[in-house]
Amino acid sequence: MADNTVFDSVFKTMVHKAPQLMVPFINEAFGRNYPPESTITPFSNEHETPSGSIIDDSVFRLGDKIYHVECQSTSDTSMVVRMIEYDFAIALEQALSGGAPYEINFPSSCVLFLRNTSKTPDALQMKVNLPDGGSFLYSAKVVKAQRYNSDDIFEKGLLLLLPFYLMRYEKALSQIANDEVRTARLVEECVALHSRLATAVLATGDRLLYEELVELIIRVSDYIMSQYDTLRTKVRGAMGGQVLELLNDRAERLEREAREAGRKEGRKEGRKEGRKEGRKEGRKEGREEGVQSLATQLKERGIDEQIIAEAIASLTPEEEPEEADENQGSK
């Protein structure tokens, strides 16, 4: 998987499944003070331009403003050109939807740089010259993820940055993997991060957000440590990988138990009403209870209801034909 694809996927997963994580990020990037429970209204991230369709990472309304956030894993000198192209497309769509008299309002924009160098600017700027001699300065905010330590992240609620936290050690991974002391130190830091994450999120009762963040942290750490098997395994365990696997195993076990309980109850009732009817009802009730349990698990994990409905439909067989009477001899 391409480098940018991994990080883009993780970022967009958070935007889609946990949009509330954007609120403290916007507060930090733009100096706002939105309450954590503020409503985020997402917009389409695909825009048509004369040169074709372009897709941004995240556009949404928060309060009375429209925000545009891009996640960038590497330094890109042309990023400001892409940003003004995105922002003009977003502003033009909003102007057209508002009708005449038309007015262009650019969104408040920001780029999250997961990696940065001494040459990474603190803002993306471009001078725009108009034919009448006027001009204006286009500017987009810049947030450098690696400037935030663990205390910053938890004190400011910047959990959006947490899956990318270990990227700050990328250049030193070879040395860390071959040094027991440095390995132990990194694992200890991961244990502390996981503990703080569990405390911060599980205290609110949001188990699904906790699981999602652990999965995304591990997805990034597995990727950047793909060449260091021992270190990767230790970090995965320290970041809660084993706990997450136990939770998933428990969910699967409960699903199996629900199906089995449904079958047993169906057979029990069936014996009272007749062997043939009991077998039919037992299978039916077992399926229904198992399917209902599966639907609940998928819904809790944030799966779209239409996808759930299609999956359930595929698992529900057509009505079985009547069985021949056991007492009827073969002809």
What can you tell me about this protein's structure?
- With 331 residues, the chain is α/β, with parallel strands linked by helices.
- Among the domains are: 1-147, Trna Endonuclease, Chain: A, domain 1 (3-Layer(aba) Sandwich); 244-315.
- 53% of the residues lie in helices and 14% in strands.
- It contains 11 helices and 8 strands.
- The strands form 2 sheets. A 6-stranded mixed beta sheet has the order 1-4-5-6-8-7, with helices on both faces.
- The relative contact order is 0.07.
List strands and helices in order, with pairings.
Elements: H1 3-17, H2 22-30, E1 40-42, E2 46-49, E3 52-55, E4 58-62, E5 65-72, H3 79-98, E6 108-113, E7 123-129, E8 135-144, H4 150-155, H5 173-177, H6 180-202, H7 207-224, H8 229-238, H9 241-273, H10 275-300, H11 305-315
Parallel strand pairs: 5-6, 6-8
Antiparallel strand pairs: 1-4, 2-3, 4-5, 7-8
Helix pairs in contact: 1-7, 6-7, 6-8, 9-10, 10-11
Task: Using brief descriptors, characterize the structure shown.
331 residues; alpha/beta; Trna Endonuclease, Chain: A, domain 1; six-stranded mixed β-sheet; two-stranded antiparallel sheet; 53% helix; globular
